[in-house]
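Hi support team,

I'm opening this ticket because the web form for multi-chain structure prediction keeps timing out on my end. I have pasted the exact lines I submitted so you can reproduce it. The total is 389 residues across two entries, so I didn't expect it to be a heavy job. Is there a limit I'm missing, or should I split the entries? Thanks in advance, R.K.
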Amino acid sequence: MATKKTPVLDRSKIFRVVIQTADAVPYCDATLTRIAKVAKVPVARLQAQFIDFTHLLIAVQQYILDELRDHVIEATAHLPPGLGRVRSATKVYLDHSLQHRGLRTWLLQARREEPQLAEGLRRQNHSFALVISTEFHALGWPHPLAAARLYLAAIQEAARLEQIKGMPLAFVREAIWDIARFYTGQVQAGVAR
Amino acid sequence: MPAKKPASPKLPPKAVALDPRESLLAAGLRLLAAGLPAAQLNPRGIATEAGLKPAQFSRNFPDFSLYLAGILRRLSEQVRAETLHAIGRKPPSRDLIRKAITAYLNAVLARPALPEITLATRANPACQEVTRERVNSMVMLATLQLKMAEIPNYEGLARLGMAMLFEIANAEFEARRALPEYRLTLDAYFVSPRKH
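Hello R.K., no limit was hit. The queue was backed up. Here is the completed structure from your submission:
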């Protein structure tokens, strides 16, 4: 007698459910059971795949950071090094963060409690900073890694501010473009001069 | 002419009569200033340093995280005071912004317990609140300085500039030393014309 096979769990479907749920439910109410219910899968299957809610969030964080990286590459691969490329990459980062506003809120809260999540983000930030630093290096900035790390901190703050308002903020984006103009050598002095 | 009364020597901080809570906080700050890593702060050691019984610690701070929040607040106040001292009553200028940046970074670097406790207690609401207040107060200070220095888009630049400043403080905490290339990178943007 043939045994009925359990279908393979569609991880990207589960991740999309997490992203949608994060837009509707506060982090304090988020549980594996809730995600299982929305995804219409038994909670035991999610446990078998992800162990617990924290590990599910770690997987979602990686998924979303990989997606962001792919979008940045897609938007910038055809551009020469310079302000245009840095600006395109920054815009993708900020727009992507706004699109995943709920999930970002969850992750910000979860990272305070779960060092593994914070460590995942730290490693990804390091990779992003290395990529940005090669850009600044190619453009002749004398301390490319320092500039990249500071620029990334500015982007993350810009994303955080826009996340609070739920929309792009002109004064924040103008400030980030000004910093980008300076570190890519498009202007000879900073602070909007 | 009556002989001038000799000035009474200043009492060392340890001997000043403070209420027990203040004594315990002052004792913790002294231990940290003497080089004790924040992770090694403990109620018994703090009470001993304060000249109190261990039971008095738990009576005044039933939750150790509330004690750490108090320590964080005082360290933040010290950093802010040193930053404000660098600004003084001088007229606003880009050079003054550079001095304030340097003063802030030096003040944090001299107090590794500040980032150490901030990181260790980031899930604690009382400590989060102190950190939020510190960040907001620095953003307000930066906004005011940039506005008075007539820098366009001072609000956006103050927000992002402070994020960059905090990142340098983090990098210097990780390295346990000043990182001139980071300071120059921020200074170059906020203060001086580009020189390369």
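A quick check on our side: The two ends of chain A are 79 Å apart (CA to CA). Let us know if the file doesn't open in your viewer.
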